[in-house]
Write a structure and sequence with these properties.
single chain, alpha/beta, nine-stranded mixed β-sheet, three-stranded antiparallel β-sheet, globular, disordered N terminus
């Protein structure tokens, strides 16, 4: 059995970068504009080199994509107000690569362009382990989640979870002393569930932090929770699932963790308990079976020393086409439909250059006509 070290060190980090306040304002404007998500934001930044240049081209790109009406572009005044309100609440809006932005989260293609962080920024630079599970957890599940969280915390890891009822809150409470991260589905001022406001206050005033990619005032909706889950898994070395029924949100987190190249751990349970059905299936599918914290420590130890692979820079990715022909757009739209299809298949079937295809997809997305899915799949909205 591995003994807790009490010091898991600092997560592998490449050179820390900084952006100017003018660039921060422009990035906030861009990500708060209509039809611009994290992947689209990154494409625009790679294509145009700066958020300001991308903002100038948004109307033209949306028009070329077939937008029927002008999409809203966040104004500089609105962005300044959000920055000021965030600072008043002690929230820092950080870009990937800046100190305090979780290093492993920064490696994802859909990493939030700006992440709102409140609390101890240093805690986010330490190795993170995710713990998620049933909201309607058993007493045994709650006890074991707390035990794992406490022992991993004693070993120097920071626990990251979703502030939900059940397993999440048990993991947070057990790791308060060592540091824990709450990932919010809504804005920092819209806490869900509301009865965990005291728990969140204890996290951010202690050795932990709260993070959110949503603007202030954003009330969490059902579709926001999977988005939140990708932040839990993407920030962590691995994710532990403690009690999860079939089709639970915790299984979505586990799937995202696997897609992101993170370790997936599962705590086995009784075949007679439906709350263990999902975790038992994860073990059948190859997740690491967990009966003690040493199982996790042993599995992540080799990973911690590996250098992180950051997303491609502008000069490493194929260029975009300056202005695709209209018949190329028509051909791509004809190949798309409500069923998700891979971008690689679109390139192969259409015979078009990847640069042309990427540009048309970007135009369609900015026009509100394209939806992106996990695994490089796209469909018409």
């Amino acid at each position: 059995m591995l003994e807790p070290t009490g010091d898991a060190g600092v997560d592998a980090v490449s050179t820390i970068t900084e952006i100017s306040e003018a660039e921060r304002l422009d990035r906030l404007r861009l990500i708060r504009s209509d039809n611009v998500g994290p992947r689209t934001f990154r494409s625009l930044l790679l294509h145009f080199g700066s958020a300001r240049a991308a903002l100038e081209r948004l109307p033209d790109l949306a028009r070329r994509g077939g937008a029927r009406a002008s999409a809203r572009i966040c104004s500089a005044d609105d962005a300044r107000r959000e920055l000021a309100a965030s600072r008043k609440l002690g929230i820092s809006l950080l870009a990937p690569g800046e100190a305090g932005y979780p290093p492993r989260l920064a490696t994802l293609d859909d990493a939030p362009p700006l992440l709102g962080i409140r609390g101890d920024i240093d805690s986010l630079m330490r190795p993170l382990i995710g713990i998620v599970g049933s909201r309607n957890a058993s007493a045994a599940g709650l006890k074991f989640a707390g035990q794992l969280a406490r022992e991993l915390s004693d070993a120097g890891f920071v626990i990251i979870s979703g502030l939900a009822r059940g397993i999440d809150q048990a993991a947070h409470r057990a790791s308060l002393a060592g540091g824990t991260i709450a990932v919010l589905a809504g804005g920092h001022d819209c806490i869900y569930p509301p009865e965990h406001e005291d728990l969140l206050a204890a996290i951010v005033t202690g050795h932990g932090a709260a993070i959110s990619e949503m603007p202030l005032g954003h009330e969490p909706r059902a579709r926001d929770f999977p988005r939140r889950n990708r932040l839990i898994s993407g920030s962590a070395l691995g994710v532990i699932v403690v009690e999860a029924a079939h089709r639970s949100g915790s299984l979505i987190t586990a799937r995202m963790a696997a897609e992101q190249g993170r370790e997936v751990f599962a705590v086995p349970g009784s075949p007679l308990d439906p709350r263990a059905a999902g975790t038992n299936d994860l073990i059948k599918q190859g997740a690491t079976l967990v009966t003690e914290a040493a199982d996790i420590i042993r599995a992540v130890a080799p990973i911690m020393g590996r250098p992180l692979q950051l997303p491609l820079r502008e000069d490493e990715e194929e260029p975009f086409a300056p202005d695709p022909e209209s018949y190329d757009r028509d051909q791509i739209v004809a190949l798309l439909g409500p069923t998700p299809v891979s971008i690689d298949d679109l390139i192969r079937i259409s015979g078009l250059a990847p640069a042309v295809l990427r540009t048309v997809l970007l135009e369609l997305e900015l026009a509100g006509r394209l939806e992106r899915h996990g695994g490089g799949l796209v469909s018409l909205s």
